[in-house]
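Backbones bend. To wit:
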Amino acid sequence: MNIVVIGHGGHSKVVSDIIRANKGNQIIGYLDDKYEKIHMIKNIIFAPVSEAVKINETFDDVKYVIAIGDNTARKSVVEKLGFHVKRFEPIIHPSACISPSAKIGPGTVVMPQAVINADVIIGNHCIINSCSVVEHDSLINDYVHICPNTTIAGTVKIGEGACLGSGGTIIPNKKIGEWTMIGAGATVIDDLPPNCLAIGIPARVRMTKQVNQGEDNESINL
């Protein structure tokens, strides 16, 4: 499968390793706006993101993955491209343990030794990072980033764009609001509202924000 990686920074290094770990995959290009024009190195395309349209015209079977760690930026790129969902491919490391009943959406990246158990549903363009665990019947909405060594217990619901810091734990049956951030090592024992920052053991809301997606303006209430 021919794959174009969008984003060419630190996160894309890990994504590229996962792509290469799956036999039959071939990276044919990296798109990033740090490149001002198209150039080729060892038959690999390096170009600005806008060149994705021309690549589509050249390669009928090309798939894309957004290798950008920031959830808001990843969503913005997907919306600007406007590609059909079939143009994106889930990228799963061979060492990940995925239940046959789990569902993983297009564009989602599952990293080494992650565990996704029975009847989990993971949306589009998520990041399930190394050694994280998503237990049975949990629902992970689009653009979520689950950082390394995070444990999500059963029947948890996580809203769009949420980010769960490394080494955190969410106990069963909890709901995490959209675009909420949970600090590294936090233990979540209560539902969390949208657009907040929660830290500590147990996790407590320390900051709330109202954000217009795609804009920089936000109001913070401490």
